[in-house]
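Attaching the record inline, Q. Sequence:
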Amino acid sequence: MTNKNIIQPNLKQENTAPEKLEWTPELVKRFWDGLTHTRLLELGFSRQVGKSLIVMIEHLLPKKGVILDFGAGDGDLIKLLCERGFATSAYENSGERQHKLIQMLSDYEKFTGIVDAASDLKFDVIIMAEVIEHLLDEEIDKTLVRVVNMLVPGGVLVITTPNDEDLELNMAYCPISNKIFHRWQHVRSFTAGSLKDLLAKYGVEELATHKVELNDHIFLPGDNMWGQKIQGERPSFLSDIKSNISVTAGSEQNLIFLGKKTND
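Structure, as predicted:
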């Protein structure tokens, strides 16, 4: 007897090549809202390597100013920044995620709330951690304009993204729809040069672009707060990072762009 709850494949598609899924804003929202109900969030960038990122960029973070986590997701990076003593706000499009952010961060004294596109607040540092590679063609220009407008003159923009990612090798296949799509909804790939050139168009001058493997075993030894359980000397290349000299380390799978707003 056939189980009516089992989705039957379309046999006409069995021998046809899969098509690429065309992402729309509605599909992107559905994708990320759906992920909030799965354990896949445990693999989130900031949950995995947020501490290493903060150690890398801490010399640029203001003790008396305010940081914005643009595309805050589930708030993992904000938690770490608040623990480190940095006042941090969140920008997050998803209404469902906004509600969860408030619930999760309400006890953090340094959490300064959620801002939206209508806000006229300015920030000393804006971090876009694993955001830019998700932006659709119709969104990238207005998003970068918005981000730069939210920086104070001379403010710092931090962008992380995979380094020269081969998007095709990170595809997933849906046998129901016969479509392929990036498993993390990435739609674009950057090199250090292409990212620098793109940000220059929006009035952001490169301070440094690092090609590193963000890994706690590389970045946390010697750190006073998070390095206690990881033995070893403080990595020597951190002194170059603190001087805004571009470095390479480990597998070089992560791009870390550091830029300064030059226009008002």
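The helical segments are 25-35, 45-57, 76-83, 95-105, 137-149, 192-200, 216-219, 238-242. Residues 68 and 126 are 5 Å apart (CA to CA).

More tomorrow.
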